[in-house]
Fold these 3 entries.
Entry 1:
Amino acid sequence: MGGLGVGVPLMLWTHFRLPGAETLSVLSRYTIAPGVAFGYLGLVLILLRCGGGGGFLSRQLAAVGRTALSCYILQNVISIVAFYEWGLRLGPLDSIGTITAWAVISAILMLGASLWLRRFPQGPFELAWKAAVEASFRRRDRTRAEAKDVRQEPGQRHHDDNNDPSGAP
Protein backbone atom coordinates (compact mmCIF):
# COMPACT_ATOMS: atom_id res chain seq x y z
CA MET A 1 0.00 0.00 0.00
CA GLY A 2 3.00 2.28 0.49
CA GLY A 3 3.38 2.48 -3.29
CA LEU A 4 0.01 4.16 -3.57
CA GLY A 5 0.92 6.59 -0.80
CA VAL A 6 3.84 7.80 -2.91
CA GLY A 7 2.55 7.20 -6.43
CA VAL A 8 -0.88 8.82 -6.26
CA PRO A 9 0.41 12.18 -4.90
CA LEU A 10 3.14 12.20 -7.58
CA MET A 11 0.58 11.43 -10.27
CA LEU A 12 -1.64 14.29 -9.05
CA TRP A 13 1.41 16.60 -8.80
CA THR A 14 2.27 15.99 -12.45
CA HIS A 15 -1.37 16.09 -13.55
CA PHE A 16 -1.91 19.56 -12.10
CA ARG A 17 1.50 20.69 -13.44
CA LEU A 18 2.80 21.95 -10.12
CA PRO A 19 6.43 23.17 -9.89
CA GLY A 20 8.90 20.40 -10.74
CA ALA A 21 6.21 18.32 -12.48
CA GLU A 22 8.42 17.57 -15.49
CA THR A 23 11.14 16.03 -13.33
CA LEU A 24 8.63 14.15 -11.22
CA SER A 25 6.91 12.86 -14.34
CA VAL A 26 10.09 11.16 -15.59
CA LEU A 27 10.90 9.89 -12.10
CA SER A 28 7.41 8.54 -11.45
CA ARG A 29 7.09 6.87 -14.84
CA TYR A 30 10.32 4.89 -14.67
CA THR A 31 11.16 4.34 -11.01
CA ILE A 32 8.04 4.61 -8.90
CA ALA A 33 5.67 2.66 -11.18
CA PRO A 34 6.68 -0.78 -9.79
CA GLY A 35 5.95 0.43 -6.25
CA VAL A 36 2.57 1.73 -7.34
CA ALA A 37 1.84 -1.62 -9.01
CA PHE A 38 2.53 -3.41 -5.72
CA GLY A 39 0.30 -0.85 -4.00
CA TYR A 40 -2.56 -1.74 -6.37
CA LEU A 41 -1.95 -5.41 -5.71
CA GLY A 42 -2.10 -4.79 -1.96
CA LEU A 43 -5.30 -2.78 -2.37
CA VAL A 44 -6.93 -5.60 -4.33
CA LEU A 45 -5.89 -8.12 -1.66
CA ILE A 46 -7.34 -5.93 1.09
CA LEU A 47 -10.61 -5.55 -0.82
CA LEU A 48 -10.78 -9.31 -1.35
CA ARG A 49 -10.16 -10.01 2.33
CA CYS A 50 -12.84 -7.54 3.38
CA GLY A 51 -15.32 -9.39 1.17
CA GLY A 52 -14.38 -12.71 2.78
CA GLY A 53 -13.47 -14.24 -0.56
CA GLY A 54 -17.14 -14.66 -1.53
CA GLY A 55 -18.03 -11.05 -2.18
CA PHE A 56 -18.96 -9.34 -5.41
CA LEU A 57 -15.38 -8.40 -6.33
CA SER A 58 -14.13 -11.94 -5.63
CA ARG A 59 -16.78 -13.44 -7.89
CA GLN A 60 -15.99 -10.99 -10.69
CA LEU A 61 -12.26 -11.63 -10.46
CA ALA A 62 -12.88 -15.39 -10.39
CA ALA A 63 -14.93 -15.06 -13.59
CA VAL A 64 -12.09 -13.14 -15.23
CA GLY A 65 -9.68 -15.84 -14.04
CA ARG A 66 -11.75 -18.57 -15.69
CA THR A 67 -11.76 -16.57 -18.93
CA ALA A 68 -8.24 -15.11 -18.64
CA LEU A 69 -7.08 -15.77 -22.21
CA SER A 70 -10.33 -14.44 -23.67
CA CYS A 71 -10.21 -11.34 -21.44
CA TYR A 72 -6.58 -10.69 -22.36
CA ILE A 73 -7.33 -10.86 -26.08
CA LEU A 74 -10.54 -8.84 -25.77
CA GLN A 75 -8.76 -6.19 -23.67
CA ASN A 76 -6.28 -5.69 -26.50
CA VAL A 77 -9.01 -5.58 -29.15
CA ILE A 78 -11.04 -3.03 -27.15
CA SER A 79 -7.95 -0.89 -26.58
CA ILE A 80 -6.95 -0.99 -30.24
CA VAL A 81 -10.43 0.00 -31.38
CA ALA A 82 -10.70 2.74 -28.76
CA PHE A 83 -7.26 4.34 -29.05
CA TYR A 84 -5.81 3.78 -32.52
CA GLU A 85 -6.23 6.33 -35.29
CA TRP A 86 -8.46 4.09 -37.40
CA GLY A 87 -10.69 3.45 -34.37
CA LEU A 88 -12.36 5.89 -32.01
CA ARG A 89 -9.14 7.93 -31.56
CA LEU A 90 -9.58 8.38 -27.80
CA GLY A 91 -5.84 8.45 -27.11
CA PRO A 92 -3.26 9.44 -26.12
CA LEU A 93 -4.40 9.89 -22.52
CA ASP A 94 -2.84 11.45 -19.46
CA SER A 95 -2.39 9.47 -16.24
CA ILE A 96 -5.94 9.98 -14.96
CA GLY A 97 -7.39 9.16 -18.38
CA THR A 98 -5.32 5.98 -18.55
CA ILE A 99 -6.55 4.83 -15.14
CA THR A 100 -10.14 5.69 -16.10
CA ALA A 101 -9.83 3.77 -19.39
CA TRP A 102 -8.33 0.80 -17.51
CA ALA A 103 -11.22 0.85 -15.00
CA VAL A 104 -13.87 1.03 -17.74
CA ILE A 105 -12.28 -1.75 -19.81
CA SER A 106 -11.85 -3.89 -16.68
CA ALA A 107 -15.50 -3.39 -15.73
CA ILE A 108 -16.60 -4.36 -19.25
CA LEU A 109 -14.45 -7.50 -19.12
CA MET A 110 -15.72 -8.47 -15.65
CA LEU A 111 -19.32 -8.05 -16.73
CA GLY A 112 -18.75 -9.90 -19.99
CA ALA A 113 -16.91 -12.76 -18.27
CA SER A 114 -19.62 -13.28 -15.66
CA LEU A 115 -22.38 -13.18 -18.31
CA TRP A 116 -20.48 -15.60 -20.55
CA LEU A 117 -19.92 -18.07 -17.72
CA ARG A 118 -23.66 -18.27 -17.03
CA ARG A 119 -23.98 -20.27 -20.26
CA PHE A 120 -20.55 -21.80 -20.85
CA PRO A 121 -17.94 -23.46 -18.59
CA GLN A 122 -14.98 -21.44 -19.97
CA GLY A 123 -14.24 -18.43 -22.13
CA PRO A 124 -14.49 -18.70 -25.94
CA PHE A 125 -10.73 -18.73 -26.52
CA GLU A 126 -10.22 -21.21 -23.69
CA LEU A 127 -12.79 -23.52 -25.28
CA ALA A 128 -11.13 -23.18 -28.70
CA TRP A 129 -7.70 -23.82 -27.17
CA LYS A 130 -8.99 -26.90 -25.34
CA ALA A 131 -10.62 -28.25 -28.52
CA ALA A 132 -7.39 -27.73 -30.50
CA VAL A 133 -5.27 -29.50 -27.89
CA GLU A 134 -7.72 -32.37 -27.48
CA ALA A 135 -7.99 -32.75 -31.27
CA SER A 136 -4.27 -33.31 -31.58
CA PHE A 137 -4.36 -35.95 -28.82
CA ARG A 138 -7.39 -37.66 -30.40
CA ARG A 139 -5.60 -37.68 -33.75
CA ARG A 140 -2.48 -39.18 -32.16
CA ASP A 141 -4.53 -41.82 -30.31
CA ARG A 142 -6.35 -42.73 -33.53
CA THR A 143 -3.03 -43.03 -35.38
CA ARG A 144 -1.65 -45.31 -32.66
CA ALA A 145 -4.76 -47.49 -32.74
CA GLU A 146 -4.56 -47.79 -36.54
CA ALA A 147 -0.85 -48.66 -36.37
CA LYS A 148 -1.61 -51.32 -33.75
CA ASP A 149 -4.31 -52.82 -35.99
CA VAL A 150 -1.91 -52.95 -38.94
CA ARG A 151 0.81 -54.70 -36.89
CA GLN A 152 -1.62 -57.30 -35.58
CA GLU A 153 -1.55 -60.69 -37.32
CA PRO A 154 -4.50 -61.43 -39.65
CA GLY A 155 -6.03 -64.31 -37.62
CA GLN A 156 -5.57 -62.70 -34.22
CA ARG A 157 -8.49 -60.86 -32.62
CA HIS A 158 -8.47 -57.94 -30.22
CA HIS A 159 -9.03 -58.61 -26.54
CA ASP A 160 -12.17 -56.53 -26.79
CA ASP A 161 -13.63 -58.64 -29.61
CA ASN A 162 -14.83 -61.39 -27.26
CA ASN A 163 -14.28 -59.76 -23.86
CA ASP A 164 -11.82 -62.56 -23.02
CA PRO A 165 -8.68 -61.05 -21.48
CA SER A 166 -6.58 -64.01 -22.63
CA GLY A 167 -7.17 -63.14 -26.27
CA ALA A 168 -8.13 -66.74 -27.12
CA PRO A 169 -10.22 -67.15 -30.30
Entry 2:
Amino acid sequence: MKRVSLADVARAAGVGKATASRALSGNEEVGMATRARILDIAESMGYQPNRTAQSLRTGRFNVVALFVPLSEPWVGEVIRDCAITASAAGHQLLIQDSAGLEAMTSPAAYLRSLAADGLCVVGASHRVADALTTTPVIPTLTLLTGDDEATPTAQVIDQAVARICSDDAHRPA
Protein backbone atom coordinates (compact mmCIF):
# COMPACT_ATOMS: atom_id res chain seq x y z
CA MET A 1 0.00 0.00 0.00
CA LYS A 2 1.32 3.43 -1.00
CA ARG A 3 2.24 5.84 1.76
CA VAL A 4 -0.18 8.78 1.97
CA SER A 5 1.65 11.99 1.12
CA LEU A 6 0.98 15.61 1.99
CA ALA A 7 -0.03 16.12 -1.65
CA ASP A 8 -2.63 13.34 -1.31
CA VAL A 9 -4.14 15.02 1.77
CA ALA A 10 -4.15 18.43 0.07
CA ARG A 11 -5.82 17.01 -3.03
CA ALA A 12 -8.51 15.24 -0.96
CA ALA A 13 -9.16 18.43 1.02
CA GLY A 14 -9.25 20.62 -2.10
CA VAL A 15 -6.44 22.89 -0.87
CA GLY A 16 -2.85 23.52 -1.83
CA LYS A 17 0.08 21.66 -0.27
CA ALA A 18 1.17 24.78 1.60
CA THR A 19 -2.26 25.16 3.21
CA ALA A 20 -2.37 21.47 4.13
CA SER A 21 1.12 21.70 5.60
CA ARG A 22 0.27 24.78 7.65
CA ALA A 23 -2.94 23.16 8.89
CA LEU A 24 -1.17 19.95 9.91
CA SER A 25 1.55 21.86 11.74
CA GLY A 26 -1.00 23.89 13.72
CA ASN A 27 -0.25 27.20 12.02
CA GLU A 28 -2.88 29.75 13.07
CA GLU A 29 -2.94 31.34 9.59
CA VAL A 30 -5.32 28.53 8.56
CA GLY A 31 -8.90 29.01 9.72
CA MET A 32 -10.19 26.70 12.42
CA ALA A 33 -12.82 25.08 10.20
CA THR A 34 -10.34 24.46 7.37
CA ARG A 35 -7.73 23.14 9.78
CA ALA A 36 -10.25 20.77 11.40
CA ARG A 37 -11.37 19.49 7.98
CA ILE A 38 -7.78 18.89 6.84
CA LEU A 39 -6.89 17.15 10.11
CA ASP A 40 -9.95 14.88 9.79
CA ILE A 41 -9.08 14.01 6.19
CA ALA A 42 -5.44 13.35 7.08
CA GLU A 43 -6.46 11.06 9.93
CA SER A 44 -9.02 9.17 7.83
CA MET A 45 -6.39 8.63 5.12
CA GLY A 46 -3.80 7.41 7.64
CA TYR A 47 -1.41 10.27 6.89
CA GLN A 48 1.86 10.27 8.83
CA PRO A 49 4.33 13.14 8.43
CA ASN A 50 7.54 12.25 6.62
CA ARG A 51 10.26 12.65 9.26
CA THR A 52 12.99 12.91 6.63
CA ALA A 53 11.24 15.80 4.89
CA GLN A 54 10.62 17.49 8.24
CA SER A 55 14.27 17.18 9.24
CA LEU A 56 15.40 18.69 5.94
CA ARG A 57 13.12 21.66 6.56
CA THR A 58 13.80 22.16 10.27
CA GLY A 59 17.34 20.86 10.66
CA ARG A 60 16.10 18.69 13.55
CA PHE A 61 15.86 14.90 13.50
CA ASN A 62 13.99 14.34 16.78
CA VAL A 63 16.46 11.58 17.56
CA VAL A 64 18.72 11.22 20.58
CA ALA A 65 21.65 8.85 20.27
CA LEU A 66 22.28 6.99 23.53
CA PHE A 67 25.55 5.10 23.81
CA VAL A 68 25.66 2.85 26.86
CA PRO A 69 27.76 -0.16 27.91
CA LEU A 70 25.24 -2.85 26.96
CA SER A 71 27.04 -5.48 29.04
CA GLU A 72 26.25 -3.68 32.32
CA PRO A 73 23.29 -5.03 34.34
CA TRP A 74 21.81 -1.57 35.05
CA VAL A 75 21.49 -0.60 31.39
CA GLY A 76 17.99 -2.05 30.84
CA GLU A 77 16.46 0.37 33.32
CA VAL A 78 18.38 3.28 31.79
CA ILE A 79 17.20 2.44 28.27
CA ARG A 80 13.59 2.08 29.40
CA ASP A 81 13.58 5.40 31.28
CA CYS A 82 15.35 7.26 28.48
CA ALA A 83 13.01 5.82 25.85
CA ILE A 84 10.00 7.04 27.85
CA THR A 85 11.55 10.50 28.28
CA ALA A 86 12.50 10.80 24.61
CA SER A 87 9.10 9.58 23.43
CA ALA A 88 7.27 12.05 25.68
CA ALA A 89 9.29 14.83 24.02
CA GLY A 90 8.47 13.53 20.54
CA HIS A 91 11.92 12.03 20.00
CA GLN A 92 13.15 8.59 19.09
CA LEU A 93 16.03 6.92 20.89
CA LEU A 94 18.92 5.43 18.93
CA ILE A 95 20.75 2.92 21.15
CA GLN A 96 24.27 1.67 20.56
CA ASP A 97 26.98 0.03 22.63
CA SER A 98 29.50 2.56 23.92
CA ALA A 99 32.18 -0.15 24.03
CA GLY A 100 32.49 0.08 20.24
CA LEU A 101 33.60 3.72 20.47
CA GLU A 102 36.89 2.73 22.07
CA ALA A 103 38.03 0.80 18.99
CA MET A 104 37.37 3.69 16.62
CA THR A 105 40.16 5.93 15.41
CA SER A 106 37.83 8.93 15.31
CA PRO A 107 34.81 8.34 17.54
CA ALA A 108 33.88 12.03 17.50
CA ALA A 109 33.63 12.09 13.70
CA TYR A 110 31.45 8.98 13.75
CA LEU A 111 29.14 10.31 16.44
CA ARG A 112 28.72 13.65 14.70
CA SER A 113 27.83 11.89 11.44
CA LEU A 114 24.71 10.39 13.03
CA ALA A 115 21.35 11.89 12.17
CA ALA A 116 20.68 12.91 15.77
CA ASP A 117 19.92 16.11 17.65
CA GLY A 118 22.11 15.14 20.56
CA LEU A 119 24.34 12.51 22.04
CA CYS A 120 24.41 10.99 25.48
CA VAL A 121 27.46 8.81 25.88
CA VAL A 122 27.74 6.71 29.03
CA GLY A 123 30.79 4.65 29.84
CA ALA A 124 33.21 6.44 27.56
CA SER A 125 36.91 6.62 28.25
CA HIS A 126 38.60 9.95 28.88
CA ARG A 127 39.99 9.78 25.30
CA VAL A 128 36.50 9.55 23.80
CA ALA A 129 35.06 12.14 26.20
CA ASP A 130 37.84 14.61 25.41
CA ALA A 131 37.37 14.12 21.66
CA LEU A 132 33.63 14.76 21.97
CA THR A 133 33.90 17.88 24.07
CA THR A 134 36.71 19.50 22.08
CA THR A 135 34.60 20.37 19.03
CA PRO A 136 30.93 19.79 19.81
CA VAL A 137 28.60 20.24 16.85
CA ILE A 138 25.40 19.06 18.53
CA PRO A 139 24.52 18.92 22.22
CA THR A 140 26.67 16.18 23.72
CA LEU A 141 26.65 14.88 27.27
CA THR A 142 29.39 12.47 28.23
CA LEU A 143 29.10 10.52 31.47
CA LEU A 144 32.25 8.65 32.38
CA THR A 145 32.25 5.36 34.22
CA GLY A 146 35.19 3.40 35.47
CA ASP A 147 37.36 2.82 38.48
CA ASP A 148 37.73 6.53 39.24
CA GLU A 149 34.14 7.56 38.54
CA ALA A 150 30.85 6.60 40.11
CA THR A 151 28.36 4.93 37.81
CA PRO A 152 25.76 7.52 36.85
CA THR A 153 22.29 6.68 38.05
CA ALA A 154 19.41 6.00 35.70
CA GLN A 155 17.92 9.31 36.85
CA VAL A 156 21.04 11.28 35.87
CA ILE A 157 21.16 9.66 32.44
CA ASP A 158 17.42 10.20 31.96
CA GLN A 159 17.86 13.89 32.85
CA ALA A 160 20.65 14.12 30.27
CA VAL A 161 18.34 12.75 27.57
CA ALA A 162 15.57 15.15 28.67
CA ARG A 163 18.02 18.04 28.35
CA ILE A 164 18.98 16.99 24.83
CA CYS A 165 15.30 16.76 23.86
CA SER A 166 14.57 20.27 25.13
CA ASP A 167 14.50 23.17 22.72
CA ASP A 168 16.94 25.03 24.98
CA ALA A 169 19.68 22.54 24.10
CA HIS A 170 19.55 23.65 20.46
CA ARG A 171 19.72 27.42 20.93
CA PRO A 172 23.06 29.06 20.23
CA ALA A 173 24.93 30.09 23.35
Entry 3:
Amino acid sequence: MKVQGRYNALDVAATVGIKRFTLASSVNAHGLVYSQGDLHFPAFPMTEEMDTFPSDAYALSKAEVELQADSFARSHPHMRIASLRIH
Protein backbone atom coordinates (compact mmCIF):
# COMPACT_ATOMS: atom_id res chain seq x y z
CA MET A 1 0.00 0.00 0.00
CA LYS A 2 2.77 2.42 0.91
CA VAL A 3 4.60 1.91 -2.37
CA GLN A 4 1.45 2.16 -4.50
CA GLY A 5 0.26 5.25 -2.64
CA ARG A 6 3.53 7.08 -3.20
CA TYR A 7 3.50 6.10 -6.86
CA ASN A 8 -0.02 7.50 -7.21
CA ALA A 9 1.00 10.77 -5.53
CA LEU A 10 4.03 11.16 -7.82
CA ASP A 11 1.94 10.32 -10.87
CA VAL A 12 -0.76 12.88 -10.04
CA ALA A 13 1.87 15.53 -9.27
CA ALA A 14 3.56 14.93 -12.63
CA THR A 15 0.23 14.92 -14.48
CA VAL A 16 -0.96 18.25 -13.06
CA GLY A 17 2.46 19.89 -13.51
CA ILE A 18 3.68 20.19 -9.93
CA LYS A 19 7.31 21.25 -10.09
CA ARG A 20 8.53 20.37 -6.59
CA PHE A 21 7.72 17.27 -4.59
CA THR A 22 9.12 16.16 -1.24
CA LEU A 23 8.59 12.72 0.20
CA ALA A 24 9.43 11.34 3.60
CA SER A 25 11.76 8.39 3.42
CA SER A 26 13.84 6.89 6.18
CA VAL A 27 17.37 5.83 6.97
CA ASN A 28 15.76 2.39 7.03
CA ALA A 29 15.98 2.37 3.24
CA HIS A 30 19.38 0.87 4.05
CA GLY A 31 17.80 -1.82 6.20
CA LEU A 32 18.55 -0.95 9.80
CA VAL A 33 15.79 -1.22 12.38
CA TYR A 34 13.93 -4.40 11.45
CA SER A 35 16.88 -6.30 10.01
CA GLN A 36 17.63 -9.77 11.27
CA GLY A 37 21.22 -10.83 11.76
CA ASP A 38 24.45 -8.95 11.18
CA LEU A 39 24.47 -5.84 9.05
CA HIS A 40 27.36 -5.03 6.74
CA PHE A 41 27.80 -1.67 5.05
CA PRO A 42 30.63 -0.60 2.77
CA ALA A 43 31.44 2.54 4.79
CA PHE A 44 30.36 4.87 7.56
CA PRO A 45 28.92 7.39 7.59
CA MET A 46 26.39 6.25 5.02
CA THR A 47 25.86 8.62 2.09
CA GLU A 48 23.08 9.18 -0.41
CA GLU A 49 25.21 7.65 -3.15
CA MET A 50 25.63 4.30 -1.36
CA ASP A 51 23.62 1.36 -2.59
CA THR A 52 20.83 0.27 -0.31
CA PHE A 53 20.67 -3.27 1.04
CA PRO A 54 17.10 -3.64 2.32
CA SER A 55 16.75 -6.85 4.28
CA ASP A 56 13.15 -6.56 5.47
CA ALA A 57 9.80 -5.49 4.02
CA TYR A 58 9.83 -2.01 5.57
CA ALA A 59 13.31 -1.21 4.26
CA LEU A 60 12.40 -2.60 0.85
CA SER A 61 9.32 -0.35 0.66
CA LYS A 62 11.41 2.72 1.54
CA ALA A 63 14.09 1.85 -1.05
CA GLU A 64 11.42 1.19 -3.70
CA VAL A 65 9.75 4.56 -3.13
CA GLU A 66 13.12 6.30 -3.53
CA LEU A 67 13.68 4.42 -6.80
CA GLN A 68 10.24 5.54 -8.00
CA ALA A 69 11.10 9.14 -7.17
CA ASP A 70 14.38 8.86 -9.11
CA SER A 71 12.50 7.42 -12.07
CA PHE A 72 9.91 10.21 -12.03
CA ALA A 73 12.64 12.85 -11.81
CA ARG A 74 14.32 11.40 -14.91
CA SER A 75 11.12 11.03 -16.93
CA HIS A 76 9.64 14.39 -15.88
CA PRO A 77 12.51 16.88 -16.07
CA HIS A 78 10.25 19.75 -14.96
CA MET A 79 9.95 18.08 -11.53
CA ARG A 80 12.41 18.42 -8.68
CA ILE A 81 11.94 15.62 -6.17
CA ALA A 82 13.54 15.39 -2.74
CA SER A 83 13.54 12.22 -0.64
CA LEU A 84 14.23 13.09 2.98
CA ARG A 85 15.75 10.21 4.91
CA ILE A 86 14.41 11.03 8.32
CA HIS A 87 16.10 9.39 11.27
